[in-house]
Amino acid sequence: MKKRLTTLLSFPLFLALESAALAYCDAINTGWMDTGNMSQSACLDTAQNGLNQTGARNINLNGSTVFARIGSERVAIRCIAEKQLVYYVTFGCNTATLKLISKEIHGYYQ
Asked: Which of 29, 35, 66, 76 could staple 47 via S-S, CB 3.0–4.6 A?
């Protein structure tokens, strides 16, 4: 019973610490690229495969956006094929790391 209570009490603490860490991180980077005649499914596949090769974790496709984590940074890549556009947002604590991730994302669509 004591172990279960400790586990139940530690989960909210974990969430609070995670939220506090995210609140402290205020670096953000955005960008976009022309996808040419790439289809929506090809654009999303490119994002997922690129993130996989980059070593991203928690890759999740939600509609027209692929979300992932690279280290402690978070990434969202949105494909809008009918506008021939892919838009991305990176968020985290380290501006230099976000710039490197942005270069990686650009490389996915070259």
From this structure: 66
Q: Name the CA radius of gyration of the chain, rounded.
A: 17
Q: 74, 66, 72: which is closest to 49 by C-alpha?
A: 66
**Concatenated DSSP letters for 35-90?**
-TT--HHHHHHHHHHHHHHHT-EEEEEETTEEEEEETTEEEEEEEEGGGTEEEEEE
Q: Does the model's pTM come out above 0.85?
A: no
Instruction: Provide the token pair at 109.
Output: 């669509």
- pLDDT tens-digit profile of 27-44? 888 999 999 999 999 999
Q: How far apart are CA 64 and CA 27, in angstroms?
A: 24
**26-108 is a CATH 3.20.20.150 domain:** no
* Domain segments of the chain as ranges: 26-108
Q: What CA–CA distance (Å, rounded) separates 107 from 10?
A: 41
